[in-house]
Design a protein that fits this description.
single chain; 477 residues; alpha+beta; Rossmann fold; Uridine Diphospho-n-acetylenolpyruvylglucosamine Reductase, domain 3; Phenylalanyl-tRNA Synthetase, Chain B, domain 3; 3 domains; six-stranded mixed β-sheet; five-stranded antiparallel β-sheet; 16 helices
C-alpha cells in the first residue's frame, strides 16, 4: 500500500486537495475503492506535516436489506479499527424514486450527496472525499460521448470541485482499478462486493461490462486514451471558462432583473466563446442547462449574429425569454408572468398643466407663451420638446398609453402613418414601445409622440400669435 499512499500524497499536494487542519468526510461504501481510499487518507493524515482529520460516512440506500446491513457493520468496524468517527445514513431511495419519479441512479446519487453534505456540515468539514478512480473516469467520458456532450462534459469528473461551500475531492482519479485491487491484496485489506455492480441494466454498468470491453478490441489502451482526453479537455475547458468570464464582465450588463449585451462586440467573439457566454448567462439567471439545450443556445447565437430580422423573441422555457431589439440581446426572466405594458390616460383641460406618468418616471409640462423668436427656437432643441399653434389646438388634450392601430399625420407626408411603423423606422425596441406616451387632441388625433416625432397638426406658422410648448422630463423619478 505504501507506493500507492505516496502517489496519492503527491497528487493531493499538487492538486491542493487538502490543507493542514482540514476535516475530510470520506464516503466509504465497503468496496475496494472506498476502503482503499480510507486507508490511504488515514496513512497520509497520520503524518504530522499533513495534519488533517477524517470522518467515515457510509450510506445504506435501502435497496438490498441483508447485504446493506452486513456492509454497514463492516465499514463501522473498519472505522473503529482506524479510530475514525463513523456516520451511517439510512436512506429510503425507493420511496424517493416513487415520490420524485426519478430513476434509480439519479435518485440514489441525489440522496447520497444530500446526506454527505449534511455530515460535512455537522463536522465543519472542508471536503468530501469520493473514491472515483481512473476507470470510473473512462466510463464517465464514454457515457458523455454517447450523449453528445460538449467539451465541458467530456472533461469528465474533476479532481476538485466546489459544491455548496464544500470541496468534492477525488484523490484516486488517476489511479486504475487494477492498481487498487493489487494494493488491497498485497496489504491484506478486506473489502466487500456489491452485487448490483454486476448487473448491466444500469447504463454505467453496461458501459463498464459491455461497451468498453468491446471497444477495447480496437484500442488496447482505451481507458488511458479516454483519461487523456478528459485531462486535456479539462485544462482547455478551464482556460475557456476564464475567457468566458472575462467576456461576461466586458459585455454583459444587468437591466430590470435581466441580462443584456450589445450585438456588435458579441459578434467579434469566436463562435465557441459566443456559445459559452450564452450558456453562462443562462446559468446566472438561473436557467438549468442540460446537454440537450445546445439547440437553444445555438438558436440564440444564430439569432444574434444574423443581419435580419433585427427584432425577435425566443421562449427558452421556465418563464425565460430571449429578445433581440435591433442591436441589443436581452434575457428576461419571469417573462410569462410579467406585466408587459402600462395602461394610463391623463386629461389636460387647460394650460399651464403638468402630467406625471406613474410608473414611467416621466413628466410632461404644458406651457403657453406668445409667439416669437424664443418660442420658435425651442423647435430646434431636440425631440423632448414640441411647440404647437395654441389657436389651432382642440381641447381637452390627452396623455395616454399607446393603443393598437394608432395612426399619426406626419409632417411632410400627405396622409397618415402607423405609429408602429414610426417606431420601426426609429428603431425603438419593442419592449420600450408601450412605455412611450402619446399626446392627442380633443378629436383623438395624435399631436406628438414625445421623444420620437410630432405630427403636422397645429403647426406653427408666420401667423401664429401664441404657442403651446410641451416638454418631456425623463428624470422625474
Amino acid at each position: 500500500m505504501y507506493p500507492l499512499v505516496e502517489r496519492v500524497r503527491r497528487i493531493g499536494e499538487e492538486g491542493r486537495l487538502w490543507s493542514p487542519g482540514d476535516c475530510i468526510v470520506v464516503a466509504v461504501s465497503g468496496g475496494s475503492d472506498s476502503v482503499a481510499l480510507l486507508h490511504i487518507l488515514h496513512a497520509i493524515a497520520s503524518r504530522t506535516e499533513q495534519g488533517f482529520s477524517l470522518v467515515c460516512a457510509h450510506i445504506n440506500h435501502g435497496f438490498r436489506p441483508e447485504e446493506s446491513r452486513e456492509e454497514a457493520e463492516f465499514v463501522e468496524g473498519l472505522a473503529k479499527r482506524l479510530d475514525v468517527p463513523f456516520e451511517l445514513g439510512n436512506l429510503d431511495v425507493p420511496a424517493y424514486m416513487e415520490q420524485s419519479g426519478k430513476g434509480t441512479q439519479l435518485a440514489a446519487r441525489e440522496k447520497r450527496y444530500e446526506y454527505l453534505h449534511a455530515v460535512a456540515e455537522k463536522y465543519g468539514a472542508a471536503s468530501i472525499a469520493l473514491a472515483h478512480h481512473a476507470d470510473d473516469q473512462a466510463e464517465t467520458v464514454m457515457m458523455r460521448i454517447l450523449r453528445g456532450s460538449g467539451p465541458s462534459g467530456l472533461a469528465g469528473m474533476r479532481m476538485k470541485r466546489r459544491e455548496d461551500n464544500v470541496n468534492l475531492i477525488r484523490p484516486l482519479l488517476r489511479i486504475y482499478k487494477a492498481e487498487i485491487l493489487q494494493a488491497c491484496q498485497d496489504s491484506g485489506i478486506p473489502y466487500r462486493m456489491d452485487s448490483s455492480n454486476l448487473q448491466n441494466k444500469y447504463a454505467r454498468n453496461a458501459i463498464r461490462l459491455d461497451v468498453l470491453p468491446f471497444l477495447g478490441q480496437y484500442n488496447g489502451q482505451l481507458a488511458e486514451s479516454l483519461n487523456r482526453l478528459a485531462e486535456t479537455l479539462g485544462e482547455e475547458d478551464d482556460y475557456m471558462q476564464q475567457a468566458t468570464h472575462q467576456a461576461y464582465q466586458e459585455l454583459v450588463t444587468s437591466k430590470d432583473e435581466g441580462l443584456v449585451f450589445q450585438i456588435g462586440p458579441f459578434t467579434s467573439l469566436h463562435a465557441a466563446l459566443q456559445r459559452r457566454l450564452i450558456k453562462l448567462i443562462l446559468n446566472y439567471l438561473p436557467f438549468g442547462i442540460e446537454e440537450s439545450d445546445f439547440i437553444k443556445i445555438e438558436r440564440v447565437r444564430q439569432g444574434a449574429i444574423q443581419s435580419s430580422p433585427t427584432t425577435w423573441s425566443l421562449d427558452l422555457g421556465g418563464g425565460l425569454q430571449c429578445v433581440r431589439e435591433y442591436d441589443t440581446i436581452r434575457f428576461i426572466p419571469n417573462a410569462a408572468g410579467g406585466n408587459k405594458s402600462l395602461r394610463y390616460t391623463y386629461r389636460v383641460d387647460r394650460v399651464p398643466a403638468e402630467v406625471t406618468i406613474q410608473g414611467l418616471g416621466t413628466n410632461l409640462l404644458f406651457t403657453q407663451t406668445a409667439a416669437g423668436q424664443d418660442a420658435m427656437s425651442t423647435m430646434a432643441h431636440g425631440k423632448d420638446r414640441a411647440v404647437f399653434d395654441a389657436d389651432k389646438l382642440v381641447y381637452p388634450l390627452t396623455v395616454r398609453s399607446r393603443q393598437p392601430g394608432d395612426m399619426m399625420k406626419v409632417k411632410g407626408l400627405n396622409g397618415t402613418k402607423k405609429v408602429k411603423d414610426i417606431f420601426i423606422d426609429e428603431k425603438i425596441p419593442p419592449s420600450l414601445r408601450s412605455r412611450i406616451p402619446i399626446v392627442t387632441d380633443g378629436q383623438g388625433q395624435i399631436l406628438w409622440i414625445p421623444g420620437i416625432r410630432r405630427s403636422s397638426i397645429a403647426a406653427v406658422g408666420q401667423h401664429t400669435s401664441s404657442v403651446v410648448l410641451i416638454t418631456m422630463d425623463r428624470n422625474s423619478e
